[in-house]
Amino acid sequence: MAEFSTSVKTAGEVNIIYLKGYLDAHTAPVLENTFSNLIDKGDYSLVVNFKDLNYISSAGLGVFMAFIEKIRDNKGDIKLSSMSDKVFNIFDLLGFPLLYEIFKTEDEAINKFKEIKKLEDQ
Amino acid sequence: MKLNTGNLKGNIKFQSFIILSVILFIYKVFVYSSGSWIHFLINGVLSALTIISLIIYLIEFSHSRKINPLALVINVGVLNAVLFFMFTYSDSILSSLLNINTGKINQGIFDNIISFFYSFIILVSVSVIFMVFRELYFLKQKKNVSLYFNTMIVFFILASFGALLIDVPDLHYIRDTFFIISVLLIIINSLKISWIAFIVKKEKISLLALSIVISILFIANLISSSSNKLSERVVVQFSPILNQFLKLIMTYGIIYFGILFFTTLFHIPTAEAFDRKAQEVSFLQYFSKLISQSMDFKELADSLTEISAKVCNANAAWLVLKDGEEFKAMANKDIGYYDSNLLTKFIFEMKHPKTDEQTFFLNLNRFNDRPQLSDNFVHVAASPLKSHNELKGYLVAVKKNDFIFDDEDKDAMTTFSDYASLAIENSRLLEESIEKERMEKELDVAREIQRKILPSKDPQLEKLQISSVFIPAFEVGGDYYDFFKLEPDKFGFVIADVSGKGISAAFIMAEIKGIFESLSKTMESPRNILIKANEILERTLDRKNFVSAAYGLIDLKSDTLSIARAGHCPVLLIRNNAAQQIRPSGIGLGLDYSSNFINSLDEEIIKLEDNDIFVLYTDGITEAKNSDLEDFGTKNFENVLLENSEKGVDEIANSVMKNIALFSQNNSQHDDITLVILKWKQKLKNNGVKNGRIQHLS
Questions:
Q1: DSSP SS3 for B677
Q2: How many domains does chain A have?
Q3: Average pLDDT of the residues in B354-364
Q4: Is A95 in contact with B587 (CB distance < 8 Å)?
Q5: DSSP-assigned states of every residue in B609-663
Q6: Based on the domain organization, do B270 and B303 belong to the same domain?
Q7: Which chain B residues touch A98 with a CB distance below 8 Å?
Q8: pLDDT tens for residues B89-128?
Q9: How high is the ipTM of this complex?
Q10: Which residues of B touch A33 (CB under 8 A)?
Q11: What domain range includes position B329?
């Protein structure tokens, strides 16, 4: 059985979710839980790091769609980072780059949040 | 067969006893005369043989019965009482029946018959008592102890035959020596009374009373059988051997029941603990049976709490099951749900017990809500229920007032909670298998839906060769493709992949089919069809579901293909031995309902050339995996297509499938595989010969 796990790191206002392994219909609930827990705590600025993700299926992509509306309603966002070419290609085919900001590195994604915060503060 | 031979043996033994008795009777009544040594000896041997044959028969007889020690003891008591009355009233009854001259018993036939039967009753009673002692001796003996008993029998026989020397006072010491040795052996053998440990407390108390009465009866009988009363004289005259045997058995009885009395007396204080252990063991047996037979967890839980309460002497017990972070009481025994919920909340949610602890105790003195309880519960014992090292709940028992739980209770709780854990695990496995079966049924339905939705055969067109292959995954993947022959010279096709799997994907698929079926008839532009489809889906599709799709329309007159893509895999075009991806931009259906979707959606128009091959597929092909979990990939796919591009569409499709099968032979198919190959044959009419030749060659 393909394994999948997530871990969360907090960096200031932003939470980074690390994905590892195979994200498909069977393992999607793991990620759903991770998102739910963060949203319950009121954390809406999320960066998802795909560095260690080997595979994502359509059901895995669906998880992002399930939460994005609520997060954006709360002035947050999910930003994606560090995808392998293979994973990016799957996102790209479906047109995700039009729906989500995808960054090369985790830091770029975090900085984007910081810039927005700065703008808001001004 | 075995039973029959047993019966036969028993019969033979019984017959030999009867024959010996009759011979003894005839001999005593008609032949015997006192004073003759020969007669005296024959009489002794005959009586001894009668006793022995009777005992042998009785042993055989007793083997076929289930032995209850208390019933045996009562038998001894009854026989003893009979003997007691016979001895007590013998003087008055016998003296009135027998003619007695100067202290000597007359030897008339009538006298002989009377004294024979009198003695014979004693003979039978004593033999039965001996048999009972033998049964009691071997009861619950784990080791082979027959040596002691057999030695004792040998000395019984020696002592009894020693009684034949009644008229030789000089040799009385022989008889007495054997008698004393017999008594010593009796004492040793009387210590083997382990069976009393196995009877319950109630029985022990009745045994105590019985044994004192019976030992007194034995003492009385021994005294009256050796007080030179008329009775003794009759028996001695019948046979000194019987008299001696009688004395031995009476002595045995006194010693045995004396020891039994004191042993039972000392056993009584521990009887309760012993009963409890025995009860526990029998409950555990009962549970093992219940667990293996019962499907119903609730039933098991009820028995568990009931028996746990009983074994721990607790006033109430219940099970607590962990449900997320909450704890819920169930299978309450002698406690209301209000009380159990209150206590459960206090014990597990406020105190947060350490789960690595086995069974733990708790005092409710500091429980603030205690006045709300309907009973004065003070002490709590709780034992964790674990399955796969995960805490599932607790078995809880409570005691009222000042009764506390001790280590014995702790052990019992631990044992029973282990059983409860096992039961939980069992019911979980059962539920899992039911769930699995349900899922398989569901998947059957989903596959059936899918099979009916997909086109049953490929359409035949003049200028277009079409071949399609669909292989469903075990868990239905939600692939969909379809063709639409449109009037007048238009041909539409669609390929789509619904996110997710199983029956929910199959239902969305059915909806998609409906949408494209109707839209293809009312609209022409692939782009507009996809925009409209996205609009319709907004009303029904879940937020996390989406559909990737590609729609193409071929104008058979103007030889053009217009195609739009909503997030689906690109369409491959094989032209002039090169593969190119037709990938107009577009977001998957259901991902975005804003103008974003419309703005990003492009439509591409391609002028068709002869032998153009268009390949539609779903990611089941490119993501087919080998045993190292590597993807089949686009490169491999394109290579296979290029290598076979000269062949007919069916052959191309076959080659692709063969290659995928070869690649992923050691791995199961995760996703539906759909492959549609379209080959444009523009010059079909003009160049039928060439085409015909190719077909001929293949």
A1: strand
A2: 1
A3: 74
A4: yes
A5: -TT-EEEEE-HHHHT-B-TT--B-HHHHHHHHHHHTTTS-HHHHHHHHHHHHHHH
A6: no
A7: 587, 592, 596, 600
A8: 877 777 777 766 555 566 677 777 888 888 888 889 999 9
A9: 0.90
A10: none
A11: 294-432
Q: What CA–CA distance (Å, rounded) separates B312 from B408?
A: 8
Residues B507 and B612 in one domain: yes
CB-based contact (8 Å) between B568 and chain A? yes
Q: What tens digit of pLDDT does each residue of B290-333 get?
A: 777 666 777 778 888 888 888 788 889 998 888 777 788 888 88
Question: Residues B49, B146: one domain?
Answer: yes
Q: How far is B414 from chain A (nearest CA, A)?
A: 35
Q: Is residue A39 part of a domain?
A: yes
Condensed to tens digits (0 to 9), the pLDDT of residues B682-693 reads 865 544 444 434
- Please tell me whether residues B168 and B230 are part of one structural domain: yes
**Three-state secondary structure call for residue B35:** coil
Contacts 24+ apart (CB under 8 A), B293-297: B295/B427, B295/B430, B297/B423, B297/B424, B297/B426, B297/B427
Nearest by CB to A95, which of B544, B588, B670? B588
- Indicate the average pLDDT of chain B: 84
Task: Specify whether B22 is located in the same domain as B145.
Answer: yes
In a domain, A122, yes or no: no
Answer yes or no: is A117 within a domain: no
In a domain, A121, yes or no: no
Residues for chain B: how many in total? 698
Q: At residue B635, what is the residue type? A: K
CB contact under 8 A, A93 and B570: yes
Q: Are strands B326-333 and B316-323 parallel, antiparallel or unpaired?
A: antiparallel
Count the Cβ atoms, other than its own, within 10 Å of residue B668.
8
The structure's pTM equals 0.57
Q: How far apart are CA B554 and CA B575, in angstroms?
A: 17
Assign B553 a pLDDT band (cuts: 50, 70, 90): very high
CB–CB of B671 and A99 under 8 A? no
